[in-house]
Amino acid sequence: MRERDDMTFPPEEYQRRLSGLRERMEERLLDAVIITDPENIMYLTDYQTTGYSFFQALVVPLVDDCYMVTRKMEESNVYARTWVDKTRPYADNGDAIQSLVESSGMRGSPIRPWATSGTATSSPPTSRTASAPPSPTAS
Q1: Contacts for 123 with CB less than 8 Å, ≥ 6 apart
Q2: If both were cysteines, with which of 21, 55, 89, 91 could 75 make a disulfide (CB 3.0 to 4.6 Å apart)?
Q3: What residues contact 106, with CB distance under 8 A and at least 6 apart?
């Protein structure tokens, strides 16, 4: 986790939040979570952005480094305003969802939709059917 002097909370707080998320992921047998809500991204990374006008996602693998999928124009903001070291930018004329799938290694892997909020209609998975997707390399 990269440290910055201007973060809202100390780096340890973000590490605690991330560790808590990963504990819940382990309990629910999730290899990764994809977070797209700007408020939840801010909670985990301190990334303050309008975010609703374009697609962005924080990918949190169970066993590897987090990374952001965002517009190429926003890549410098990720480095300047978060502790996140890796980004997977997409062009404004590109396909953001395709970029997300390709960068995560999920292509061809089963993706099980399931919400951790308890509002989902399906049950959590009962076993892991695939290993965690490979991590992208640092930009």
Answers
A1: 114
A2: 89
A3: 133
Q: What is the pLDDT of residues 40-74, one digit of tens each?
A: 999 999 998 876 788 899 999 999 999 999 999 99
Name residue 85's amino acid.
Answer: D
Helix (H), strand (E), coil (C) string for the chain: CCCCCCCCCCHHHHHHHHHHHHHHHHHCCCCEEEECCHHHHHHHHCCCCCCCCCCCEEEEECCCCCEEEEEHHHHHHHHHHCCCCCEEEECCCCCHHHHHHHHHCCCCCCCCCCCCCCCCCCCCCCCCCCCCCCCCCCC
Query: pTM of the full predicted structure?
Result: 0.73
Give the chain's domains with CATH numbers. Answer: 11-104 (3.40.350.10)
What's the rounded mean pLDDT across residues 21-25? Answer: 95
C-alpha distances (whole Å) from 83 to each of 32, 52, 67, 79, 134 are 19, 21, 10, 7, 21
Pick from 48, 96, 50, 52: nearest CA to 72: 96
